[in-house]
Each structure stands twice: as structure tokens, then as C-alpha cells.
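Running this now, will post back.
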Amino acid sequence: MPQPDSTTAPHTERKSLTSAEIGAVAHLYRGEVYRSTIWRTRLDTTTNWSVVTLGLALSISFASPDASPLPLALVGVLIVFFLILEARRYRYFNVWRARARWMETHFYAPLLHDGDLHMEENWQKTLASDYMRPAYHVSFLTAIGRRIRRNYLWILLIQSLAFAGKLAVHPTPVTSLEQAFRRADIGPLPGEFIVAISTLYIMAWIGIAIWSSRRDAQRARARGSQSSMG
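Update: finished.
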């Protein structure tokens, strides 16, 4: 039997999987899809908590013209807490999603494309390394930015606009900037300080969202030139 040329074999050889191994990969893929689905559901749960608490704060603050805008400010603490919790869950979800996507692009796509397994070299080693040394594929700050872009930016904007609207219309339409500041007073804290903190609050989250978007674009370009997961 002729032997392959030793000068070319390391660069062109692809490991062929047996029927048993293909079945094992199929079961592994189903397991990763199941785990990613479970964690995706958990992401929806924290988003729902944020929407419900914001809706409750809106109901309390706009219940009457004399109602305080304070609930709209305090609900921001809960929203940030839910955002942090959701970002933590997203990092777990991203592990399972990345593994499932890796098998889709490097195993199933070549299989369906031409009816034969012409898989990328060393794709199994990359997947095996991720199983042997599991780690998050994105940073915590990137996870926060992604969740802001997907859901929380709109929740935070609604909260900020509702707070500004409450100051502007209740109990009567505002007639001066000074009057709006006085309505924003919270105990010993002057309205100017509250408005400044509120502006910094929303701008900081927008900044994180923009930063994470650019970071993801860089990661996408890097994946085009080297083999990596996440």
C-alpha cells in the first residue's frame, strides 16, 4: 500500500470519524443546545424582573400628581442589580452557545455542504481543550455591554425619560429650570446633584454598550484569521 508523502500529510490530512464517534458528537451537540436553551431562559427571567419592577415604579410615581418621583430613581438600583446578575448568567450561556456553534460550523456545516467530512484541521482539539480547561469566553464587562445592547438600554432609557417627565409635568407643568431642580431634590441632596448623577448614570451604560460593540467587532475580525471560540 503506498504511503502518503511525509512532506504534505501533516498539512492536508483530516481525521475521519467513525459512525460511533459521529453519534457521540451528535449527542454532545444535543446536550450543549439543551444547556444553552436553559441558560437562555434564565436570561429572559432577569429581564422580566427588570421590566416588572420598572412598571411598578412607573405606576407608583404617576399614580397622582403629588406622588414622589423617588421610586423612579430607586428602581435604577434594582435594574443595575438585575443587569449584573444577567451578565453573570450570560457568561455561562455563552460557553454552551459557543460550543454548540463550534460544532455547527466545523462539523455539521462541512457534512451538509458536500456530503462528506472535510473538516477544518484541529477543530476537535480546540473543542477538547475547551472541555478540559473550561473558561469564560467573554469578560464580565463585555457581557454587561451585550445585555445593555440587547435589552437594558431601552429599559434604562425609559426609566430616565420617565423620571424627567415626572419632573416636567407633575404636579403642574414646569415653568423654569430652577423649578425642575427643586422637584428633583431628595432629602439633603440638591436637585442639581440628582440630575447630574442621573445623566452620568445613563451615559455610563451607553458608553459601555458602545465599547462592547467595538470590542465584539474586533473579536469578529480576529476570528476570521485564527481559530478560536466565543
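Helices lie at 9-12, 19-61, 70-114, 123-132, 140-169, 177-183, 191-223. More later if anyone needs it.
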